[in-house]
């Protein structure tokens, strides 16, 4: 993954997550996220009682960044699912709670789950430069 993308993902804390339901409708929410660089994946902590979890696994779209100061954004698409392998959770907890220490209080809640998305497509845009910089994969 390009270093500009990794820098943006490391700096930002909130994303917009949209999930496509089997009936064709969408569920969108602003979510705190964390990530792993190698392999590049996005993690999101939520509750298994949320509407978004009822349709998983599912196609998803994630948007990170974009404010009028930085003028950069990252769009991601891929499958999102609930992490089912509990042996992965210690690593995910370490990554996620380092970025969002306030969220650790939900760690022991039985409804707490982590979602994981390994993007199959992405596009980074930097509108501060002319012409705008676009990196996609």
What does this structure look like?
- By secondary structure, this protein is mainly beta.
- It is 15% helix and 46% strand.
- The chain has helices spanning 3-11, 89-99; strands spanning 14-20, 26-32, 34-37, 40-47, 58-64, 72-82, 112-126, 133-136.
- Strands 1, 2, 3, 4, 5, 6, 7 and 8 form an eight-stranded antiparallel β-sheet that branches.
- The mean pLDDT is 95.
Explain the layout of strands and helices:
Blueprint: H1 3-11, E1 14-20, E2 26-32, E3 34-37, E4 40-47, E5 58-64, E6 72-82, H2 89-99, E7 112-126, E8 133-136
Antiparallel strand pairs: 1-2, 1-5, 3-4, 4-7, 5-6, 6-7, 7-8
Considering the chains and any ligands shown, give keywords for the structure:
8 strands; 15% helix; 2 helices
Residue windows where pLDDT falls under 50 for at least 5 positions: none
| Secondary-structure element order, N to C | HEEEEEEHEE
Beta content comes to over 45%
Total of helices? 2
The general outline is globular
Radius of gyration, whole Å: 15 Å
- What structural class do helix, strand and pairing data support? mainly beta
Helix content: 10-25%
Oligomer: single chain
Short description:
Helix content is about 15%, strand content about 45%. By secondary structure, it is mainly β. The mean pLDDT is about 95.
């Amino acid at each position: 993954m390009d270093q500009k993308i990794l820098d943006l993902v490391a700096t930002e804390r909130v994303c917009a997550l949209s999930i496509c339901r089997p009936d064709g409708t969408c569920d969108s929410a602003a979510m705190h996220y964390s990530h792993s660089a190698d392999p590049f994946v996005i993690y999101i902590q939520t509750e298994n009682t949320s509407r978004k979890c009822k349709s998983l696994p599912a196609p998803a779209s994630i948007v990170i960044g974009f404010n009028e100061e930085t003028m950069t954004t990252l769009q991601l698409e891929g499958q999102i699912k609930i992490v089912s392998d509990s042996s992965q959770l210690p690593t995910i907890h370490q990554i996620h709670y380092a970025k969002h220490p306030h969220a650790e209080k939900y760690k022991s809640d039985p409804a707490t789950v982590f979602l994981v998305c390994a993007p199959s497509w992405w596009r980074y845009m930097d509108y501060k430069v002319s012409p705008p910089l676009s990196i996609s994969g």
